[in-house]
Amino acid sequence: VAIPVKVVTIGTDASITDISESVTCRSTDEDVVKVSDRCDYVFVNGKEMKGKVKMMVNFTYGYLSAQLELCVWIPRLPLQIEVSDTELSQIKGWRVPTATTGQR
């Protein structure tokens, strides 16, 4: 799962400049969330072992810095799912391919 990130500056004249390619970035805990080398998205790849409520990613541009705060949830394992309808039914309009054995 990846979430795109764009870093901008807002000038005194209210101009907005995309500086995404000029920033450096770092996750404060890569066991929770990672950030791409180009700082253009934050992501999880399934190897994370914990979540965190106030997860921070730091962005730096020259002497300026900013933080992106995230909430990362992770399920407790083993995951148990309960459903009221225990019967599997075909999805209307969904064709299921069948394997052919060459016999007719």
Query: Cα distance, first to last residue?
Result: 45 Å
Largest sheet entry = 3 strands, antiparallel
Strand order of the largest sheet: 1-6-5
- State the secondary-structure class: mainly beta
Q: How many β-strands, per DSSP?
A: 8
Strand fraction equals: 35-45%
CATH structural class of the domain at 2-71:
Mainly Beta
Q: Do you know the CATH architecture of the domain at 2-71? A: Sandwich
Average of per-residue pLDDT values: 89
Share of helix among residues? Answer: under 10%
Compute the CA-based radius of gyration. 22 Å
**Count the helices. How many?**
0
Shape: elongated
Order of helices and strands: EEEEEEEE
**CATH fold-level topology of the domain at 2-71:** Immunoglobulin-like
Could you explain how this protein is built, in words?
The termini are far apart. The protein is an all-beta fold. It has a domain at 2-71: Immunoglobulin-like. 0% of the residues lie in helices and 36% in strands. A 3-stranded antiparallel β-sheet has the order 1-6-5, with no helix packed on it.
Please write out the topology.
Blueprint: E1 2-4, E2 8-10, E3 16-18, E4 24-27, E5 34-35, E6 41-43, E7 52-61, E8 64-72
Antiparallel strand pairs: 1-6, 2-3, 4-7, 5-6, 7-8
Keyword list:
three-stranded antiparallel beta sheet; TMEM132; Ig_TMEM132_4th; Immunoglobulin-like; 104 residues; mainly beta; T132C
Concise overview:
By secondary structure, the chain is mainly β. 0% of the residues lie in helices and 36% in strands.
